[in-house]
Each structure stands twice: as structure tokens, then as C-alpha cells.
């Protein structure tokens, strides 16, 4: 049974939740500081979040979700953790199937400390698909001094963003992703990318760093990023990078990435700031090798466990 938590119930729920976290997290070798930071992060009932408990024959689990993205699921008893979590996930699946949503997800954080990795093995047996996941990498601002910008191949030139060509960039990103993201068709619909690109172009920080490459009037590669200290802290983030499949293997991804990083540094570089870039595992080892070769280091890896209505 799933018990939704209201504001009237929240104080008691919070006490029980904290007690469960303090029992489970030490068993996962999670430090007291990290545990207290986790509790502080989830101290209040956030807007749009559903806080709940599951009550099963094995015990309680404490969870929180936004839409059908589950942020955490903490068992009340470490000794019975797998039974509690399997029963809790089954209850959540039943409630999800009674909704109109298409997908129920939970992030499996693979970098330690992690409060989800230990039960990842349960997920496939419950019908969850374990997606290829995301890897985040970072590099210090000064690493660019050791990076050489490659020459562009003949017939390819660098261009800056023009509003008149936003549809060309949308087509580029749609085509670049089409062959790789089979399970999420919205990723390669041109209309979806058109909306993404139009929104991105409305942000000054992204426009300043936007690098495109053109060949015979066609946009064949692009990279842009931004820096928003009020939201991202001291991170200069590369947001999107794409190369048309027929132009891959010619160093265009490396060129556009380095140029984007240079523009990020020129506009937003400051002591203590770092570059960050993410990649999806289903894109294969090539981008990861490129980022590591440039000097980035992996800071986070996670897998998306997804339960779909039409699985």
C-alpha cells in the first residue's frame, strides 16, 4: 500500500525518514557529512514533489518523486532491505500503471557514495530496463593551456550562430541523434529539436559560446555551452555537441568542443570554475575517449532504470 504524505503528516514522516536514513546509510559506507547533506537537501516538501511511504508485509520504504521520476527509496529495515524494496517498487509500478504516464524512472548512481546502486540488481527482474546511462566529466579551467586546436579539413569553415539558421541546427541535432537513441523517439524528432534550439538561442550565455561548422552551405557540426552561477554554481557547462554521421571521424567534434571551451573561458573563466560535459553511454566509447584524452576526468556515472507502459 502506498501512503501519500501530506503537510499534516510531514513532521512524523520526516522523523521516520531520518531514522531510516541513519540506519541504512552507514551500512553503505556513506559518511556522516554526506548523510547530513542528503537529509538537509530533502528537508522540505518541494513544490511539485510527491512524498510517500509504502507499507508492505516486509516493512516500510520512504520515497519521493517528481512526476514519475523517483528520487529515492529508503527501506526502514536494513536486514530486510531487498524484500522491502522489491515490494515497494511493485506497489509503485501498480500506481504508475493506473496513471496516464508513459514511463517510470529511477536513477542508479554508480559513483560512490550511492544510495541506489546496491539494489540495482533487483530492477530487471521487476521489469525495469536498465538504460545505458550518463557519464559526467570535469576539467579545471587551466587545462586548455595544454590543448591544441586541430586544423579544419579543406572545405569546412567555422560559423557563428545566426537566428535565420536555427532550423539548420535543429536538423543537425535531430540527424546526429537519430541513429543512436532508438528507445526515445522524441530525441530525434526535428520539431522537438527545433523547440530546444530556439529556447537555447534565447539565452545569452549559450549564444556567446555557440560554434558551428559549415560545409557547402550545410551545418555539419555544432557545440554550445553556458555558465549560470545562480543555478549551476562554479560550472562552465558544455550543453550540446553534435556532428553529422557522414562527417564523423574527421576531427570536427574535437574542434567544435575546444572552440566552445575557449569561448566559455573567454566569457566566464574565473578562479575556481571548472568545465563540465556529459555524454550518454549508448553513443559508444568515442566521445568518452575524446574527453578523457583532452584531460577531463569522470566525476559521476549513472544508469536510468525505466519501467514503460508499452514495454
Supply database-style keywords.
311 residues; alpha+beta; Aminopeptidase; 13-stranded mixed sheet; Acyl_CoA_acyltransferase; GNAT_dom; acyltransferase activity, transferring groups other than amino-acyl groups
Provide the structure class.
Answer: alpha+beta
Distance between the termini: 24 Å
CATH superfamily of the largest domain: Gcn5-related N-acetyltransferase (GNAT)
Global morphology: elongated
CATH third-tier fold name of the largest domain: Aminopeptidase
CATH hierarchy class name of the largest domain: Alpha Beta
Q: Uncertain regions: pLDDT < 50 for 5+ in a row?
A: 182-188
Helix segment tally? 9
Radius of gyration: 22 Å
CATH architecture tag of the largest domain? 3-Layer(aba) Sandwich
What oligomeric state best describes the polypeptide chains here?
single chain
Major sheet characteristics: 13 strands, mixed
Strand content: 25-35%
Order of helices and strands: EHHEEEHEEEEHHHEEHEHEHE
Provide the number of structural domains: 2
Number of strands: 13
Helix content: 25-40%
InterPro entries: Acyl_CoA_acyltransferase (IPR016181), GNAT_dom (IPR000182)
GO molecular function: acyltransferase activity, transferring groups other than amino-acyl groups
Pfam families: Acetyltransf_1
